[in-house]
Amino acid sequence: MMRSLWTSTTEKDWRAALDRYTTVVDGQGVARLSELDRWYRDELPGLVVQRRKAHVTQSELIRLTEWKMARGVWRAPNLILVRSNAPEAVVETSTAALAAVPHPTAPIATLAKLKGVGPATASAAAAAAEPRLYPFFDELVAAQVPTLGKVAWTMSYYARYAQAIRDRAAQLGPEWTPVMVEQALWSHVGGKAGLTK
Q1: What residues contact 196, with CB distance under 8 A and at least 6 apart?
Q2: How far is it, in rounded angstroms, from Cα 131 to Cα 178?
Q3: Looking at the predicted structure, is the pLDDT value of residue 195 above 80?
Q4: Is the pLDDT of residue 197 over 90?
């Protein structure tokens, strides 16, 4: 049985898991996941925050939804709904959402007003814009935090999840962000491919 990373308070353990993240992504065997993950981590954050008012575009929302689904569970009907959002509605809604930073849930709740966007997809956009505040809401990660209980796709659950991840980032040191903690936990279990081994 795999030792729980969550129970470790040793930064070295967390760093080792985080350092494996790209290898674990590449090992998922999911078409386009590696390409989408690199875009999501390396390009999207800069695009979002360089704008006069931080926001995501419709094409970015579609692409980050594809990333989220490639990394987790593919839900084609949700992607169809996400694509049906008008470009101006995505910009307007995401601008309002990111203007609500640093509220713990308002950006996620606002983004979730868009068609096909639930707390997980909304958190992906918030995490890209503000990685020091918002972790991506991932079921495999949440399942590793024993105090959270069964995963629920609600704002109250996300608030508890995000706070637990933020607290762990603070414990690990000033360079750690909630996004880094989330990636380390996902990598530690081997992503979704790790569940089938």
Answers
A1: none
A2: 6
A3: no
A4: no
